[in-house]
Structures are given as structure tokens and as C-alpha cells.
Amino acid sequence: MNFALQNTLELVLIIGLGLLLQKKVAKQDLKGVKTIILSVALPAVIFVALLKIKLESSLLIFPLLALTFNLVMLLASKYLLGASLPKEEKSKRRTIMMLLPSLAPGLSCFPFIVVYLGDDSLALAALADVGNKIFGLILLYMLAMHWYHMRSLKDLKASTSSKLKSLALALLKEPINMVIIVGLLLLALGWNMDSIPVFLQNTIQKLKILMTPLVLLFIGMAVRIKSGEFGLILSLLARRAGITFCLSALFAFLFPSLAPSLILLLVVFPQSSCSFWPFAHMSAVSSLEENDGQKRPTFDINFAVNILAFSLPFSTLLIITVFSFSEFFVNPMVILASGIFMIGISLIPLISAKLKKTKEGELDPAAYGKYVGLNTGPQTGEES
């Protein structure tokens, strides 16, 4: 049996076990499993991976590439992804711009990079995630507060400055980031895994083994998708994936001498699920608006929750598919064709709705709303 296919079947079986455990595990209990993954197992894996690489200044390109990708996707979210929504749905449009450019590779991507590509690729992915976290923790927070400030006409300079300081501290205190900092310092001193005491090596290796099965069980237990906005969210995530495939193909065309493992890394890392951090920023803005008595919210929190719920299984399935057919996805033409196909599929709901126009030549709200699960009736306009 093909090695990639065999690995895929093993991973799918563990996810299936997680699905079987759904009824026995309460939703709130999943937070504990997630904490163990992100605070113990994943940092151990990243630490081992980092100490296996050679520290070079050229590695700075990876966080810069991730940050550039985030910014490009932010523009795409405004002008391409938001096209699925009527102009009146401004709170949903802002929600899309916050969530869809963000990445959460810890749960949706890193476990599969370890299995299929190994520790060296995981170390590069962990470095790239630094740029992604700067975008998610700081830049998206500033964007959320900018929208709140523009709509509420209040002076938030002091609170924003204070919040940015607390976010910077949170960035440093996060276990994954602490491990990356310690690992890079040890590399700068010329250390590797053999340089640390044996008992520490063995402890870290044992913790590392926990990650892949824990993540897969978590994915299986956490999949709970609401059907109300299924069509719209599937369309948005498919278009996000398609645009990402096209960007990865462009990079592969520009640098044809890249190793196959690096091409696969450039394909799967941007396909990570949406991050929780933008949701935290939107929730903070929502709390401020409740205190202010704001009747027209900046963001649609329920819509954001549904996107997050669907994003993890969607990205997981996509990443497993890429790795299962890795011999095809190292070809830039296949990557580009996959991107165009995903974008085309995502446009079906919008095209279908536009074909059902009213006699006056306007988009039929009933037809569109029924397809994507939106309330597209008459609404009061908002400021942008």
C-alpha cells in the first residue's frame, strides 16, 4: 500500500474514534484536551524540531512570508471573499475579514507535517507561525479597534495602547512562543538535543509522542457543525482554499528549484484553519458595544463561531488530501488547477442566486438567502 495512503488511513481511523467519543465527552471538557495539546505536546514537538536545524539568517524569510500571506489574504477577504454577501451584511463582511486571513496551524497543520514531512519541516513551519501570530494578535486587534472607533466615535487611544502591551506579553508567555525563543537561543549558542541532559531529552521525547493521537482525537470530538449557514461557510472556506492554492502555485512557479518537501510545506501551511485570536478580538469589541448600548454590532459573533466550528475539519480534510496525493501536489500546475477548481466550486451559490433575479433585475433575496442560510431581507444601512 502507498505510504501516504497508509498514513492517511491511520489518521482517519483515530479521527473516527474521536467521533465515536463525542457523546461521552462534554463540549467544555474539550478545552482541557486543547490546553494539553497547545501547552505541552505541541511545544515539545517544536522544541525537538528546532534543535535539529541549523540556525541561519535566511530562515527569517519564513515568518516574513507568513505575514505577507496574511496581508494578501486580508485584501482578498475584502474584495473577493466578501463578494458572497449582500452589501447590507456589513457585520458579516467585517467578520470574514477578521477570520479568513488568520491561520491556526497548531491543531490543523503541524500534526500532519510531523507525520508526512518530518521534524525539519515542522521547525520551518513553527518559525513561519511567528509572523502569523504577529498578524493575528496585534494587527487584527488594531483593525478591530479601528472599526469600533470609527463606528462609535470614541477615543480609544489609551485603552488600545494598554491592550497592545498586554497582547505583547501574552505573545511572549504563550508556551509555543516560549519554546521557540528558548530553542533559538540554544541554537545560537551552538546547542542541539544531544547537548541537554538525558533525562530532559527522554521527557521531551515522551511528551512529543502524545501530540498526533491527541490532536486527531480532539478533531473527531470537536466537530459539531450547525446547518443554518452551512452553504455560505462552505463556499467561503472553499474560495479561501482556492486563493491560497493559487498563491502557493505562484511561489512554486517563481522558485522551480524548491525541494518537494518545501513545496508541500508552502501548500499545506496556508491551508490551516482559522485562528481563535480574531474571535477573541471580536468578542472584546462586542463586550464594549454592549456596555455602550450599541444596537448595530461591528461583528456577527454567531457567524464567527460557525466559521470556526467548520474551519478545523475542513482544513484537516484538505491537508490530509494534499499529503495523500503528495506526488501530484509538488507540481505547480496541479496546485494552480486545484486553486482554480476550488474557486469555481465556491462561486456556484453566488452564480445560482444571480440566475434567479427578480423582474426588476435585482438579486432575489429569498433565493439567495435560502441557498446560503442568510436573512437577506431589508436592513438598515451601517457605516463602513
Automatic annotation (TrEMBL):
Organism: Pseudozobellia thermophila
Keyword Transmembrane: yes
Protein name per the record: Permease
Keyword rRNA processing: no
Keyword vocabulary terms for this entry: Membrane, Transmembrane, Transmembrane helix, Transport
Domain of life from the UniProt record: Bacteria
Residues passing through the membrane, by range: 6-21, 33-53, 59-76, 96-118, 130-148, 169-189, 209-225, 301-323, 329-351
